[in-house]
Design brief:
The complex is a heterodimer of chains A (406) and B (150). With 406 residues, chain A is α+β, with helices and mostly antiparallel strands. Chain A is built from 15 helices and ten strands. Chain A folds into three domains: 2-143, Gcn5-related N-acetyltransferase (GNAT) (Aminopeptidase), CATH 3.40.630.30; 150-255, no CATH class; 262-400, no CATH class. In chain A, the strands form two sheets. Chain A has a seven-stranded mixed beta sheet with strand order 1-2-3-4-5-7-6. A three-stranded antiparallel beta sheet of chain A has the order 8-9-10, with helices on one face. The longest helix of chain A is centred in the last third of the chain and has 32 residues, at 369-400. Chain A is rod-shaped and about 110 Å long. Chain B has 150 residues and is mainly alpha-helical. Chain B has seven helices and no strands. Chain B starts with a helix and ends with a helix. The chains are: A alpha+beta (406), B mainly alpha (150). Chains A and B meet through helix 8, helix 10, helix 13, helix 14 and helix 15 of A and helix 1, helix 4, helix 5 and helix 6 of B. Chain A: It comes from Ohessyouella blattaphilus.
C-alpha cells in the first residue's frame, strides 16, 4: 500500500471521485482548490481523497472514497490516517463534510471524529460553492495531534518578541517578527500590540476560541547581538528551514548568549571615551586620562547593573564619579596642564543613552508614539541624571576649593 | 596632515568601534560600525565649515543613516547594529557637560545657550533619522537600480 499526492492530470480522477460526490461541478471545484491524494496497491488505484486548506491551521476533508469492489479492506481508513498525519504539521483541526447517512457518519466517528458545531454557512465563507444540491451534509471534526499547535506557535512568537524588545529591538520589528513566525506555522488570525514594556498577543482559533498572552517585558541592558540573532532566526523560520521545536531550542541558546567579557567591556568603554575625547577637542594627555576614568566608571556601571540599581542612581553617581576623578587628576603633580572639561566630556560618553535615544526616534518615525515617547523620556532623563551628577560634583568642588579647581 | 588623519579618521573609527563592543554588537559587524561612525563624523566636519553646528549634525546624521540602511540591506541584519554606534560621534555629550558646568558656576546665560544648543543638535539628529526611515527598502538594493537603468 502506498499513498501519493497527485499533482498532474487531476481531471483523470474525476470519475473516481464522483463515487463519493455526485455533483461534477462540485468535484471540479474542490479538485482545483485542494490537494488530491491517491492510495495504490499493486499499482492499482484503490482509494482517493481531496483536502482543502482553510486559514488558521484548519483543513477540511472534502472527499474520501474507495472503489466499490475494494471496500472493506481498510484502504479508506489507511488513507484517512495518512492524511491526518500529513496535515498534523500544518493544521490543528480537520473538518470533514459528508452525506448525512449512518454508515458514513459511523465510519468517521470510529476514527476519532465528532460532530462539529458548525453549519454549511461556515464553509461558504471560505469558498464560493455553487450547486450545493439538496444533499443534507453532516460536519464532523477531529483534532489533529502534533507537536505544533496554535498555543505553542504563539508561545514561540512571544518568546522571540520578548527577546527582541528586551535587548533593544524596535516596536515594528517585534510586531513583524511575531507575525512572521505565526504566519509560517499557519496561524493567521492574530492581533498583536507591542508597547515598550509589554507584548499582547491574541489568536482566534475556531469560532469561539481565543488564546491570549500578555507579557510584561522589563527593561534589561541592551544586547544587540541577541537582536541580530533573533532576527536571523526569524528569517530562517519564515523561510521554512526551522520547525517549532528547533526554534525553541535556538531561542534558548540565543537567550543565554553571554555579553562580552567584563574586561573587554571596560577596555571598550575606556577606548571609546579616550578616542571620543580626543576628536571632540581634548589634548592627548586628557584623552589618556579619559581612558582611565572611563575604565573606572564602567566598573561602577557593571557593579550597579549586577545589583539592580535604578537608572537614576547609576547615572547620577556615574556623573559624580567622573567629575570627582577628573578633579582629582588635576590635583596630581603632573608635568602638563589638564582641564576638567577636557577629561569629563570624553568620559561621560559611555553613559550616554544612545540606544534608547535612537530607538525612541525610530519608534516615533514609525508612528509608535506611545512607546517612542516612553523611550524618549527614558533617554532624556538619563541625560538629566548625568548632568545632575556632574553638576553636583562640580558644585561641591567649586565650594570646597574656592573656585581654584575649576 | 598626519595629525589631521589621526584626529579625524582614526579616532572616530576606533571610538565607534569601541562603542559597538559596548553595545554587544556581533563581532562581524565591528568594522562596518566603525566605518559608519567615521563617515558621519567626516560629513559633519566638512559641513560644519559651511553651516551651523545643528545643520552640520543634520547632514552628518543623514550620512550615518543612509550608510546604515545600505549596510543593513547588504549584511541582512537590523539597522540598529550600525545606527546606534554610528550616531555616537554626533550626540551632544559636550553640551550636557557644558550646561551643567555653567549652571554650577552661575553663568546662567551661557548655561541656557549651551543647553538650547544641545537640544538643537538633538533635534537635528531626530530630523536626520526621521527623513531617511520612511524611504522604501528597495531603493537601497543595487538590483533595483540596475533594473531601473538597464
Amino acid at each position: 500500500m502506498r499513498v501519493e499526492k497527485i499533482t498532474e492530470n487531476k481531471e483523470d480522477y474525476i470519475d473516481t471521485l464522483m463515487i463519493g460526490d455526485s455533483s461534477e461541478d462540485n468535484v471540479r471545484y474542490y479538485l482545483e482548490a485542494g490537494n488530491l491524494y491517491g492510495l495504490y496497491e499493486d499499482e492499482i488505484l484503490r482509494s482517493v481523497s481531496v483536502v482543502i486548506m482553510l486559514n488558521n491551521r484548519k483543513c477540511v476533508l472534502k472527499n474520501l472514497c474507495t472503489i466499490e469492489e475494494d471496500r472493506g479492506q481498510g484502504y479508506g481508513s489507511h488513507l484517512l490516517d495518512y492524511i491526518c498525519e500529513v496535515y498534523a504539521d500544518s493544521c490543528d483541526l480537520m473538518y470533514v463534510e459528508i452525506k448525512k447517512e449512518k454508515p458514513c457518519v459511523d465510519f468517521y466517528k470510529k476514527r476519532g471524529f465528532s460532530v462539529a458545531p458548525i453549519s454549511q454557512a461556515y464553509f461558504e465563507r471560505y469558498y464560493q460553492q455553487k450547486n450545493y444540491g439538496k444533499v443534507q451534509h453532516e460536519y464532523l471534526t477531529r483534532t489533529l495531534i502534533s507537536a505544533v499547535n496554535v498555543k505553542r506557535v504563539v508561545d514561540l512568537a512571544l518568546k522571540a518578541g520578548e527577546l527582541l524588545l528586551q535587548n533593544g529591538g524596535e516596536i515594528f520589528r517585534v510586531e513583524e517578527t511575531i507575525d512572521r513566525i505565526c504566519n509560517r506555522f499557519y496561524v493567521d488570525k492574530i492581533d498583536t500590540f507591542v508597547l515598550s514594556h509589554g507584548i499582547f498577543i491574541s489568536v482566534r482559533n475556531g469560532e469561539n476560541d481565543a488564546y491570549t498572552r500578555v507579557k510584561n517585558v522589563p527593561l534589561a541592558s541592551p544586547h544587540l547581538g541577541i537582536v541580530a540573532a533573533v532576527n536571523a532566526l526569524s528569517r530562517e523560520i519564515s523561510g521554512g528551514q526551522v520547525d517549532v521545536n528547533e526554534a525553541f531550542e535556538r531561542l534558548d541558546e540565543i537567550e543565554k548568549m553571554p555579553p562580552p567579557r567584563p574586561l573587554n567591556l571596560m577596555l571598550a568603554a575606556g577606548f571609546g571615551a579616550g578616542f571620543f575625547g580626543y576628536f571632540l577637542g581634548s589634548t592627548i594627555p586628557e584623552s589618556i586620562a579619559c581612558f582611565f576614568i572611563a575604565v573606572i566608571l564602567y566598573l561602577w556601571v557593571m557593579f550597579a547593573k549586577r545589583h539592580g540599581f535604578n537608572k537614576m542612581i547609576l547615572n547620577t553617581i556615574g556623573g559624580v564619579l567622573i567629575t570627582s576623578l577628573a578633579v582629582l587628576i588635576t590635583r596630581l603633580p603632573l608635568p602638563f596642564d589638564l582641564s576638567i572639561s577636557g577629561m569629563t566630556i570624553g568620559a561621560i560618553m559611555p553613559l550616554i543613552p544612545g540606544l534608547a535615544f535612537v530607538n525612541a526616534i525610530r519608534d516615533i518615525a514609525d508612528s509608535d508614539f506611545l512607546s517612542g515617547t516612553v523611550r524618549m523620556i527614558d533617554a532624556i532623563l538619563v541625560f538629566v541624571y548625568i548632568a545632575v551628577g556632574v553638576g553636583v560634583a562640580l558644585g561641591i568642588f567649586n565650594n570646597l576649593l574656592g573656585g581654584i579647581a575649576l | 596632515m598626519m595629525n589631521f588623519i589621526f584626529l579625524n579618521v582614526i579616532c572616530p573609527f576606533c571610538g565607534t568601534f569601541a562603542f559597538a563592543v559596548l553595545f554587544c554588537v556581533p563581532k562581524k559587524y565591528y568594522l562596518q560600525c566603525g566605518l559608519t561612525g567615521l563617515v558621519g563624523w567626516l560629513v559633519y566636519l566638512f559641513a560644519s565649515h559651511h553651516t551651523s553646528v545643528a545643520m552640520a549634525t543634520f547632514f552628518g546624521t543623514l550620512g550615518v543613516v543612509l550608510l546604515s540602511r545600505g549596510l543593513t540591506v547588504i549584511m541582512r541584519c537590523p539597522i540598529t547594529m550600525f545606527l546606534v554606534p554610528g550616531i555616537f560621534p554626533l550626540i551632544p555629550g559636550a553640551g550636557v557637560y557644558n550646561t551643567a558646568f555653567y549652571l554650577v558656576t552661575s553663568q546662567l546665560d551661557k548655561a541656557s545657550a549651551s543647553g538650547l544648543n544641545a537640544i538643537k543638535v538633538a533635534f537635528a539628529i531626530v530630523a536626520g533619522i526621521v527623513f531617511v526611515v520612511p524611504i522604501p527598502r528597495e531603493l537601497f538594493r543595487l538590483e533595483y537600480w540596475r533594473r531601473k537603468i538597464g
